[in-house]
Automatic annotation (TrEMBL):
Sequence ranges assigned to domain Nudix hydrolase in this UniProt record: 37-160
Pfam families: NUDIX, Zn_ribbon_Nudix
InterPro entries (alphabetical): NUDIX_hydrolase-like_dom_sf (IPR015797), NUDIX_hydrolase_dom (IPR000086), Nudix_N (IPR029401)
PANTHER family per record: NUDIX HYDROLASE 23, NUDIX HYDROLASE 23, CHLOROPLASTIC
CDD domains in UniProt: NUDIX_Hydrolase (cd04511)
PROSITE patterns in the cross-refs: NUDIX (PS51462)
Protein name: ADP-ribose pyrophosphatase YjhB, NUDIX family
Gene3D superfamilies documented for this protein: 2.20.70.10, Nucleoside Triphosphate Pyrophosphohydrolase (3.90.79.10)
SUPFAM superfamilies linked: Nudix (SSF55811)
Native organism: Catalinimonas alkaloidigena
Length: 180
C-alpha cells in the first residue's frame, strides 16, 4: 500500500494497532487503519437430473480445466445473488438456490469460497465468455483429474458422498497451504 485511501497521505506504517493482533497499514497523518480481508468467492453446484453442471475455463488461472460456475462476489450483492449471477455469466444457466453446501478457506491466497446447491430452472445452457464449454456430468463422468481447483473438487466430493442422506449439512474445508 502506497497511499492512505482516506486522506491520500504516503506516510503509512505497517504495525499492530492498539488492541489488535495483526500488523496492518496505519496512516501517520489521519490514523486510519487499513484492513486487508479475504475476498469472497461464490458459486453454484447446479443439479439437473442427477447430474452436475461444470464449466471448462476460458480464462486463467487454470485455462482449459473444469470448475463449478464460480467467481468473486461484487459489492452490494448477497452471496446468493452473486452465486446466481456467476452461474448465469459462465453457463447462461437460470438457477434457484436451494441451500448452502460448502465453505472452503484458502488462507494462502486470502479467499473464502462459498458454494450453494442450486436447481436448474430452464433447460438451456451455453458457454459464457469465461467458459470454453459447459456440460452436465454424472458422478462417473466428472473429469476429476482436470478439475481446476481443490475447493470445487471438495464441493463435488461432499455432494456425491452425501446426496442421498436425508439430513443435509454444510461442509467446511480448507487447503493445507499457509502463508505464515
Amino acid at each position: 500500500m502506497n497511499f492512505c485511501s482516506h486522506c491520500g497521505s504516503n506516510q503509512l506504517d505497517c504495525k499492530v494497532p492498539a488492541g489488535d493482533h495483526v500488523a496492518r497499514y496505519v496512516c501517520q497523518v489521519c490514523g486510519t487503519v487499513h484492513y486487508v480481508n479475504p475476498k469472497m468467492v461464490v458459486g453454484c453446484l447446479v443439479v439437473h437430473e442427477e447430474r452436475v453442471l461444470l464449466c471448462r475455463r476460458a480464462i486463467e488461472p487454470r485455462y482449459g480445466f473444469w470448475n463449478l460456475p464460480t467467481g468473486f462476489l461484487e459489492s452490494g450483492e448477497t452471496v446468493e445473488e452473486g452465486a446466481i449471477r456467476e452461474t448465469w455469466e459462465e453457463a447462461r444457466a437460470r438457477v434457484k438456490v436451494e441451500r448452502l453446501h460448502s465453505v472452503y478457506s484458502l488462507p494462502h491466497c486470502d479467499q473464502i469460497i462459498i458454494h450453494f446447491v442450486a436447481q436448474l430452472q430452464e433447460t438451456g445452457i451455453e458457454a459464457g465468455p469465461e467458459s470454453l464449454e459447459v456440460n452436465f456430468f454424472a458422478e462417473t463422468e466428472i473429469p476429476w483429474d482436470d478439475m481446476a481447483f481443490s475447493s470445487h473438487r471438495f464441493a463435488l466430493e461432499r455432494y456425491f458422498e452425501n446426496r442421498l442422506k436425508p439430513d443435509k449439512q454444510t461442509y467446511l474445508g480448507s487447503s493445507c497451504l499457509r502463508t505464515s
